[in-house]
Specification:
Blueprint lengths: L6 H14 L4 H13 L3 H14 L4 H13 L3 H15 L3 H13 L3 H14 L4 H13 L3 H14 L4 H13 L3 H14 L4 H13 L3 H14 L4 H14 L2 H14 L7 H4 L3 H19 L1
Helix pairs in contact: 1-2, 2-3, 2-4, 3-4, 4-5, 4-6, 5-6, 6-7, 6-8, 7-8, 8-9, 9-10, 10-11, 10-12, 11-12, 12-13, 12-14, 13-14, 14-15
Amino acid sequence: LDVIGELEKSISFYNKFIDSDPYSTSAWFNLGIVYDKLNRFEEAIQAYEYAALINPDFSSAYFNMGNSYLQLNQNKEAIVCFEKTRNLEGVSPEIYYNLGLAYQKEMAYERALKYFQKAIKLDNFYHEAWYEAGMSLYHMEKYYQSLHFLNKSLKIDRDNPIYWKSIGRAEYQVGNIVSSTDAYEEASFLASDDPEIFLEWAAIYFEQGNINEALDVIKTGLDELPDNAELIYRATAYLISEGNYKEAFLYLENALILDFEKHVVLFDFFPQLEIQKALYKVINQFRDNHKK
């Protein structure tokens, strides 16, 4: 039932089994896995706890429990579970990696970095560990060092759009504009359904004063995601910046229909009172017409 995706039925059968054999560690453990798949993390933790109570040396129960705590952002509890796993199993790249994630989520980036580096030392092809080490350094604003680790992750997994996007961010931080936009372009090929890629990519051109190129990127994003309100609001902002008010207000009306509340993002682009007044006029007119 688990394999074919009948997860709720799977839970029912595990519970029936547990009723007849309440001390089955494997039943409690597998029940926890099903709850994890359903994002019912509190129930997953409870199931793993029962498995660990029955068998205090059940290291996988502690490891999975730690992952469930991570999903709930209960990072200190996750660390306790991963440390318990390490005490029972000894060191492994996965345990070090997960400890790194927990400390990273606590914003203890230096400590997280040490654990990611330990994971890499045990498995030099652990691209996720290379990547997260790079992200810890990025959060520490050590962008050049960050790029070293991010590029290592990319060498192992070149088709990961998240890696390309993060490299785009880091390259921008060190002033490598061409390398940054190239990275975002590669990310867009791999994940054309991610609006964040197009928004960040376009923002770089806009900040450099290349409004036409910024607009081209946003319109490319809209070819892929025609109903994304954020992209349409961004197109509106860039068209206004270009002085193309007629086309801008056509985009604005479409964006207001899709997601009215997001219109506030426009005012971040235009502190000028005259433009804000014109925008408010269109927005209020739209609101009044739709109330009728």
